[in-house]
From TrEMBL:
Organism: Methylovulum psychrotolerans
Protein name per the record: KilA-N domain-containing protein
Organism lineage string: Bacteria, Pseudomonadati, Pseudomonadota, Gammaproteobacteria, Methylococcales
Pfam families according to UniProt: KilA-N
KilA-N domain segment(s): 8-107
Regions crossing the membrane: none
Amino acid sequence: MNTQATPEIRPATLTICDIQIRQDQNGRYCLNDLHKAAGGEDKHRPTYWLKLQQTVDLQKELEIDGIPSILTKQGHGTFVVKELVYVYAMWISAKFHIAVIRAYDALVTGQLPNTAYPPSPPFRKSQKALPGCLTPTTQDEIKALVTERAAALPKDKQAMAIRQMWGALNTHFGTNGKDAQGKTLGYKHIPEDARLDCLSLVARLPLPDGLVTITRAAH
């Protein structure tokens, strides 16, 4: 992990769940502040997330022109690029991920942020899971994110947005066809280890201007 002894910290411009998120001179965001905004639970400590292989791989991919994507600053905490803010938020929960999306949207548009945890949207709870595929808990996380994103749109756009998100998800993971018995597949056939990829895809899909082409994932 890269370290720096004498950092320059910018005034906070991003607020999530009433917690100001500091930035360093390169625009990276403080993970420790994000942890506080998420509730500060021990199981969500940045230290655990930083040790994940996915985090290590993303860290390398996101380094540009020798500028670290993750930097630990003595006495200030660990700072990460914007893309990793989203990944860390997804790792914590779908609800916190939504709060982060709302905060960034408010920052860009200049609107007052609505960064409180969103209420659980009404949908039928998942009861079953196929072996090795998305668990009921993960299915409900995805449903919540789809519903939340659609609910933020004008009513005449919501149905199209919901179809777009589910369609993109199934196209990306190749679950939009039929099995050998001719039965329709669907998102429940997506492997559970693709949980973060599912949430990431739904969260970043542009809405609602037309369908977005999503390439099928390599298997």
